[in-house]
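Late entry, evening session. Most of the bench is empty. Finally got around to the prediction I had been postponing all week. Sequence below, unchanged from the version circulated by S.P.
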Amino acid sequence: MSILRPVIARLQSFRDRPVVAAVLVSAITLVLVGGVVLSTTSLGCGPANRLGIKGLSHCKTTSNLIALNPSPGPTPTAVPTDNSPYSPPATPPYSPPASPPNNPPTGPIPPTTGPASGAYPPFAAPASGPGGGSIPSLALSCRLPVYVGPPGSGGFITNPGGTFIADPTSAVTLPPGQQPSPSPNGYGYGYGPAYIGMTYDGAFKRWLPVPHTWVSPDGAHYAHASPDSIYIEDVAAGTSIEVGQGQAWAVVGVWPQGVYATVVNQAGLWLFPYSGPGKQIATTGFWQIASGTAAYGTATSAVPQGIENTIIRLDLKSGVITNWFTRKGAQGFAVALDAQGYPVIQATYFVQANQGATEMWDATSATSAIPIFGTTVGMYPTGPPLADGHGIWFPMSYNVPNGPGSTGLALYVPGSGLYWMSSLTVQLAGGCS
């Protein structure tokens, strides 16, 4: 199971809705085949250069910072807070660290309805060097672990330079009998419905056969759901325990206090410590991702097409549930966490002219959120994002009318902009260090 499986399941339901299917087909195709480079025929260097698009073989290019949003949006995004009564456990199962400080962003604030294309941060578009390779638009000095698809496809993108170095030790798999069951809700980026991805554990310098959201921040533990239980692995000791027998689970977070998980297609949230019995800590809500202090999800499992949903927040210490993020005309899903533990939300619109449009948001408080990019300006997510000390990394494709397209990785730096970092079609396996 993975946090994106409900997203893909929802997207698959659109195949009986021709209008939505037609709009989403390009983004879904990118996901299913591992990333397909979007390209169109250039009409000449002049228009392409004016758009800031680089990479034409007959045009000399340099990195260029493009302000995609010359006109800031006029009104704030206000997400109401719901302080409805909630009954937490009598004794909290642990004492998590204090919540990170809430520092609402400054700058353009998007309108509350429809895609926020007028308020996206500046974007440094792909540029090509003398040999035709992509030039990162932001200078970093680190190695970024990535993988292409199946086991054994992992490696590192070195910065500066952007060179890929393959690592044969990435050929890691889950033990027989512990692998998730293939299902229509699975996602595999073109490598099978049960393929769940991999992570490079920098603390122990080894690859793990699970997504990064299933690995604890210190790299000491990871978890994965079998068809009818959860396995919790101790990386240093090489030992494993099985918990939650008799249920199909979805792992939503692994933290020092234990593993957070939900029963598939049931409301509520559970905590399984690394020793001792598991405990249900919420009986309501359909939770998608958990940090060390809060879980994010929705109050109901689904709403009708054309009706917006609300991402809610569960305080894991007090048990209080509040409304966190709503976009009129859109349905959101918490797909990742930023470096402060706030949710990164994928919002998809289903109404009128915006039908099928998708945006990525950093929801930094209950009353404000930052739009990062969207399909209305030719940017499509192609895999789960990942945050580190540099910002939030996004596997994505970029394309504009009458210009060449690129598929690769972009880095969102809060307060600065969105930077194209690689034109390699890969998925993220860890932070750049």
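Two things to note before I forget:
The CA atoms of residues 372 and 431 lie 19 Å apart.
Helices lie at 5-12, 18-32, 45-50.
Will write this up properly tomorrow.
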